[in-house]
Fold:
Amino acid sequence: MRKSCLNSVFELAKQDNRVLFLGSDLGAGTLNDFRERYPDRFFMEGVAEQNLIGMAAGLAMEGFIPYVNTIASFLTRRCLEQITIDLCLHNLPVRLIGNGGGLVYAPLGPTHFALDDFALLRALPNMAVVAPSDAVQMRAFMKKTLEWPGPLYIRLAKGGDPVVFSEGFPLEIGKAISLREGRHAVFITTGIMAHRALSAAEILTKKGLDCAVLHFHTVKPLDDARVLSAASEFPLVVTLEEHSRIGGLGSAVLELLADRGSHPGPRILRLAFPDAFVKNYGSQDAILEAAGLQPESIANSVMNSLLGA
Amino acid sequence: MIDRPLPLVPIYPGSPPLDSRSRYLRRLVLRAMEGGERGHIGSSLSLIEILRVLFDDILRIRADEPNWDGRDRCILSKGHGCLALYALLADKGFFPVAELDTFCHFGSFLGGHPERGKIPGVEASTGALGHGLSIGVGQALAAKLKKSDSRSFVVMGDGEINEGSVWEATMTAAKHRLDNLTAIIDYNKLQSYGPTRQVLDMEPLADKWRAFGFTVLEVDGHDVAALQTTFKTISEPGKPTAVICHTIKGKGVLPAENNPEWHHKSRIAPEQFAEFYKALEEN
Structure:
């Protein structure tokens, strides 16, 4: 997914000379082809995220479209004030590409986890937040980024993630996609959890439960209409995300339903990480499993909720 | 606090007396403060001559076309000094002088810190310190990419440059050989709590900027002629420039001069305003 995303930036740069690439001391060889073809529009800067964001803001003020890339936890937390003021208050078309969204860097520990990125960036006016599910969707999504008017945060997954989408699947920023029909419950999910939701739905089918899956690649602006219609159609809404239970997609859904949902609304099950630092290393899958966020556990939680256990 | 002598006397003690334009601009600052019943007076008054010379003699700008692409960019990174910027923008015709009376009012476009998009002539929304130089780096780099001869000026405070982000920006400016970028430091030697020498000593300041890849010039920040000469002679090919302006916080309003208690002031009595105006009257 990461490779698809960065290659897409190169493709966009070929089409549009406003496109720039800014990195913060990325891995050796990153986008070499871009650097060789457009050395004036490729900037590999130091380990200085605050300056990187301010610099991107200055470039965007002058008509350029900077794509800024580094590790998600540093790109969001270290320079949150620069993102808030320089990008969001000025409402500039800078694209932030966060490597290692969620738990991609599982072996590297809490400094490298990004389980709060949706919460931090969702609170900022003008910011859009997206988390495509796989490389195919990422390519489709990146084509839409050129003309997006304001700042945009793109959460990247590990790469080699299971592909959920087929080529040519229509995509619009801010519009959820139905991946599966159902009637007993609906998953509202984002990023790589789309795949887990589909697997959980398969498991539940075998138990006689028919669950729909909606993929919200865009966490903000939220597809309000899709959330509200799902809430009116299903007795159980399950939000599923690789994020803290504070401030992410589940929170966004709850906020919307509290403000605009009918009462009494559906039952809601929020599946996310607890408000605690992750204490383990290992693999992304192992940490997801420990948090009850792999297909079997997800299916069990949904079944318990539906059967009132 | 470290017990050290207070080096509050500026290096250039012989500033010429304030001329009538400098006094007029200070009266505009007071007018806005009266309107808003508050303001960072000390931080604004040290800036007057720096901004005056930039706007009168250096910047290529068009008040009737504030977004003209060929303009020079000037960011007041120490956004709390905005009263000085507002005085200059009003004086130059970017907006009517009478708007100064609305400073900090609910529906005003003149807030306690300047905002881009609200105020004609304001290049960046500042107030959170340590942001302006990075934005200036981006703008200067953009000018190079567009082969434009626009220059970028970023005015910072001496407390502001405590921020690490400023030094990230200096290294980047030097790396990209941004000779179209000028960093200006309003070195009044007093930050909010007290003397910079005590709160966080930035000395040797000129050496720091030099070590970070800048051509460094030092000037009396209240000497109009010296500022004109300095700003006109800057620019060494391939290097950004830093101009350290030695100033006096609160310059021109005696109780505020060199007095940290006047960093920000509200509820100034009408009689006191009257006194200040009198001291700043035409001779």
In short: The longest strand of chain B covers residues 181-187.
